[in-house]
Amino acid sequence: MTASPSLLSGLLNRPRYSPMVRTSLGFIGVALVALYFADISITTHDPWAEINRMVVGVFTPDFLAIDAIGSALVKTVAFALIGVALGAVAGFLLAQVFHFTLVRLVCSFVRAIHELFWALIFLQMLGLTPMTGILAIALPYAGICAKVYAETLEEAQMPALKTVPLGAGLVSTFFYVRLPDVWIHIVTYTSYRFECGLRSSAVLGFVGLPTLGFYLETAFSEGNYSEVSALLITFYLLIASLKYWLRPRLIGIYLLIAPFLLGGGMDIKLTNVTRFLTQDIVPAPLRGGDLMAASSWFEFSSWASHLIHDQALPGIVATLLLTQIALVGTAFLSLAFFPLISEKFIGKKGRVVGHLFLVILRSTPEFILAYIFLQLWGPSMLPAIIALSLHNGAIIGHLMGRFSNAVLLRADHPSGINLYGYEIVPRIYGQFLAFLFYRWEVIMRETAILGILGIATLGFYVDSALAEIRLDRALFLICITALLNVGIDSLSRHIRRRLRLNRTVQSY
Amino acid sequence: MLHNISLSIQEGERVALIGESGAGKSTLLSALQNRFRDRAALIPQDVGLVRNLSVFHNIYMGRLDRRSTAYNLLNLAWPQKRDVAEIKPLVERLGLGDVLFKVTGELSGGQQQRTAVCRALYQGGAAVIGDEPVSAVDNNMANLVMSSLSQQFQTVVLAMHDVDLALKYCNRIVGLKDGVIALDRPVDTLTRRDIDFLYAGSG
Fold it and tell me: How does the average pLDDT of chain A come out, rounded?
């Protein structure tokens, strides 16, 4: 340890480092400090025995559990289809009025809340009904689609606008000039969103909806790893074959059938909805109290400060620690992963294996990865760090690999580690940071939700409040989570602007 | 780019703007385009097409202001017979008959340029303003385009790189050099030689 102070000061004080490198070093420093405070112990008694059984399960997938698999996949797809379709249509309409500050704020708030949190909210309001799952997907997706569609429309060149005769109506101009110009981008983005929607839909099973997550959790709790393996493999195949079955012409038909595949559920009771909105979520001290009286507000402020002090603050600290560690973990893993699929480093056959590896990590929602690691190592931050870094590292590694293929090298370029360090990484580093900072907010959203699995981030306190049926507290904490996320989003935007990182295919 | 330019154009004039590239033709022309948006059909240098729509729809857009929104949307989804019938002779005249329902993004530069010309012809009105509308087509086609434009529009203002075509189809020549109007005369008082100095390199 004696060398490190001089090394550190040597690194930090040298003015020759570019702002990008200094920013990177700053983030690494923060993550190291966070790692010092984070709880990364392994608490299970004998993790190796469990890993053994799991590995055996992976290699003996049980496809005979076809009923469960079929039902899980059909419902996962049906929820994703309807949820994403509603979200995309609503987002498209909102994009037309996105220049209003109020619309922008509502959208950023709505998308700052994770699908699982939305599901938990709607569960209280609508019960275990298909509508709960649909809205849990549609609402945040509307928020993100509105933003991306609006930006796409804003940035399109549209050279034809100046030739449109004056007096052509706004609607005609929109459909003839503005929309055709961006249509292909909107379709591409929406189909990417559908892939995300499949993952969201799968994870909704963990709160009781009849999608993949539900069957996974059941199989896990029974220690039936062969069924887990079969479920996951069919899910990967479903995602890998998207381009064969997700045809624009077929979507209409799918959407007509999907509502009949969601399965039943309890009836939605209007009394539940009204009670939820008018009583359950009203902070306890204000419920039924006299809103004019100073005493109710005094009680409210002590209620809020206790909640902030005992739950929100520890939750925020844990969420931030985990986010920063996972962000840097993601960075290192994506730098390690991208050569696996890069033409510059690996031959054709090797790249097939690399792609397979990254596709599996990308397609497994971080929530499911974290759930698996948690079964192995017990509830500490370690499973969450590994899960978040693997999943996000695979996503960014995939994008960087594609970027590295486009790099033009001179004929006498070096090879191996020199090629990596001197030619490729410096050229794609800006892009890499841009991807990473776009991902920051996503990582934070996931970090908060992993609390449901027992890690003490904000989601943990939300989940506990729900278990005690204290919906007012849960909603208060969810709002704090959303604000934290909006804060990270604007910080990330600030850093990107300061480092002049190019706009990229964002939200990947 | 331009220095203190004043230019007045009378109804019925067919004006050609000529001069070396960089002399200020495009700048002057876009100033004119902005000024006369309400009265003139435009053929911009970048042709101003919607790349993902067909030739038919791009041409139809010249009259977007004359039909109801509902009709425009119907025609976007299902091209209506009467509009197809109206646009067909136009495209056939300029050799675009085979590609009427192709998206313009897949066409050659010359075909795109002719589509932009067709749109202006279809839009009609009293005047047309165009920035090098025949730069990407062969000589025969260039003559066809120029005569179509002169027949359709009472007033024509075009930036031209082909001086012979300008002399043939226009009745007034405005020559730009280094951002000022260096020549402005009726065609019948001009010969080729009076024009050469514009292209003699800037001093």
Answer: 88
A176 touches chain B (CB under 8 A): yes
Element (H, E) at B103: none
B49 contacts in chain A (CB < 8 Å): 159-160
> Does the CB of A165 have a partner CB in chain B at under 8 Å?
yes
The superfamily in CATH containing domain B1-39+126-203 is P-loop containing nucleotide triphosphate hydrolases (3.40.50.300)
Closest Cα in chain B to A178: B50
- Asked if B88 contacts B2 with a C-beta cutoff of 8 angstroms, the reply is no
Would you list which residues of chain B are within 8 Å, Cβ to Cβ, of chain A?
A: 33, 37-38, 41-44, 46-53, 57-58, 61-65, 69, 72-73, 76, 116, 119, 123
Classify the C-alpha dihedral A97-A102-A107-A110 as positive or negative: negative
- The token duo for A217 is 């959790």
Average pLDDT over residues A440-460: 93
Confidence of residue A504 (pLDDT cuts 50, 70, 90): very low
The span from the CA of B38 to the CA of A357, in Å, is 60
| Nearest-angstrom CA–CA distance, A422 and A334 | 17
**Pair B40, B176: CB distance under 8 Å:** no
| Position A57 in a domain | no
All residues at 6 or more sequence positions from B50 whose CB lies less than 8 Å from its CB, including other chains: A160, A176, A177, A180, A181, B57, B58, B61, B104
Q: Which residues of A touch B29 (CB under 8 A)?
A: none
| Domain residue limits at A157 | 63-282
Q: What is the DSSP string of A193-238?
A: HHHHHHHHHHHHGGGT-SSHHHHHHHHHHTT-HHHHHHHHHHHHHH
Rounded to whole angstroms, the Cα distance separating A132 from B131 reads 58
Which pLDDT score, from 0 to 100, does residue B38 have? Answer: 83
Q: Compute the average pLDDT of residues B109-114.
A: 94
pLDDT tens figures, B138-160: 999 999 999 999 999 999 999 99
What pLDDT, on the 0 to 100 scale, is given for residue A502? 56
CA distance A431 to A336: 16
- Same domain for A381 and A482: yes
Per-residue model confidence as pLDDT tens digits over A340-352: 999 999 999 999 9
A70 CA: distance to closest CA in chain B (Å) = 38
Question: Which phi and psi angles does B153 have, rounded to 5°?
Answer: -110, 135
In terms of domains, do A207 and A249 share one?
Answer: yes
Find the mean pLDDT for residues A97-114. Answer: 93
Structural domain count, chain A: 2
First CA to last CA distance, chain A: 39
- Judge whether A397 and A337 are in contact, CB under 8 Å: yes
CB-count burial class (<10 Å; 0-12, 13-18, 19+) for A328: buried
Query: What's the rounded Cα separation, in Å, for the pair A167 and A154?
Result: 22
Tell me the residue type at A227: E
Contact A370, A453 (CB under 8 A): yes
Split at pLDDT 50, 70, 90, the class of B110 is very high
Q: What is the CATH number of the domain that holds A119?
A: 1.10.3720.10
Residues B59-76: tens digit of each pLDDT: 999 999 999 999 999 999
Start-to-end C-alpha separation, chain B: 16
Please report the pLDDT score of residue A448 as a whole number: 94
CA distance B162 to B19: 10
Confidence of residue A8 (pLDDT cuts 50, 70, 90): low
Residue B175: both structure tokens together = 């020559």
Whole-angstrom distance, CA of residue A201 vs CA of residue A115: 9
Find the radius of gyration of the CA atoms of chain A.
24
Domain extent listing, chain B = 1-39+126-203, 50-124
**A252 and A317 belong to one structural domain:** no
